[in-house]
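Moderator note: this is an archived Q&A kept for reference. The question asked for a predicted structure of one protein chain; the sequence and the answer are reproduced below.
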Amino acid sequence: MDILHTLGDLLRNLTQLGYDLLALGWQHILIILWVVWWLWAVNWRRAWPVLRQGAWAPLVLLVLATALVWSRIAPAPCDCLVLVTVPNFWWQLGYVGMLVAIAFFCGWLQGVLQWAPAEISLDPPAHGHHDGDGHGDHSHSHGDHSHSDHSHGNHGHGHH
């Protein structure tokens, strides 16, 4: 009977572990989503060259502007460090800089693992040859067909 007692304890402990992990994940959902985005949605093989070609400058301005606005919306020093109180603006700048560093770490990790997200084309599909279904091919005149074949306005698609 010791095995049943041990299995019961194991099941209770695994259930508690699952609950604690879920609570921890929910507590940190925004940073988890941040990492997921930069790791699995950004193709860093394409992003690094763009940053090297000059996109770093607007990124730096965006970081500074974000920290400045945040310091004006919620002005307060941060006593998060034990020995030092970090003044307003500087802790917000450090936090935003940390977010950028995490994004860059995700890019570095993609390079080390030689992995990139799947390419998704946002361009509309090219207009190819139509199979004569009447869509897009309006070169025929209504005189070519009798009114019994096509009602006015539906071009023979049978929609009323």
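Archived answer notes: Residues 42-113 form one domain.
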